């Protein structure tokens, strides 16, 4: 029996942990600190599945009818 992956579900957008270089670019572009981003608890099932730890920033790529793709960023907290 194979393990079910939340990321395989069509309604769950793509999530990935950002590397520090890309994160620095995003924070500079929006002129914010990582702590000012919307939060994502480390206990969230998606955070657990991708191995996110407190202090990471997760990039969420959602499908958008108007923009094609919409990017969202979430700061992982305990």
Lay out the secondary structure.
Elements: E1 14-17, H1 20-30, E2 39-41, H2 45-50, E3 57-64, E4 68-77
Parallel strand pairs: 2-4
Antiparallel strand pairs: 1-3, 3-4
Protein name: DNA-directed RNA polymerase subunit Rpo5
GO cellular component, one term: DNA-directed RNA polymerase complex
Pfam family, one: RNA_pol_Rpb5_C
Biggest pleated-sheet summary: 4 strands, mixed
Strand content: 25-35%
User: Counting H and I runs of at least 4 residues, what is the number of helices?
Assistant: 2
Rounded to the nearest angstrom, the radius of gyration is 13 Å
Q: Which structural class do the helices and strands define?
A: alpha+beta
- Overall geometry: globular
Count of β-strands: 4
Helix content: 10-25%
Strand order of the largest sheet: 1-3-4-2
H/E element order: EHEHEE
Distance between the termini: 32 Å
Point out poorly predicted stretches.
none
Mean pLDDT, nearest integer?
91
Describe the model.
Pfam families: RNA_pol_Rpb5_C (PF01191). It is an enzyme of class 2 (transferase). This is DNA-directed RNA polymerase subunit Rpo5. It comes from Methanococcoides seepicolus. Part of the RNA polymerase complex. The chain contains two helices and four strands, in the order E-H-E-H-E-E. The chain is an alpha+beta fold. It is 22% helix and 32% strand. The radius of gyration is 13 Å and the shape is globular. Strand 3 and strand 4 (68-77) form a beta hairpin. The longest helix has 11 residues, at 20-30. It has helices at 20-30, 45-50; strands at 14-17, 39-41, 57-64, 68-77. A four-stranded mixed sheet has the order 1-3-4-2.
């Amino acid at each position: 029996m194979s393990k079910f992956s939340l990321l395989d579900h069509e309604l769950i957008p793509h999530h990935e942990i950002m590397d520090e270089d890309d994160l620095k670019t995003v924070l500079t572009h929006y002129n914010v600190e990582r702590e000012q981003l919307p939060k994502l608890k480390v206990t969230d099932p998606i955070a657990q599945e991708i191995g996110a730890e407190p202090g990471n920033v997760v990039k969420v790529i959602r499908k958008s009818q108007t923009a094609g793709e919409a990017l969202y960023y979430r700061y992982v907290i305990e």
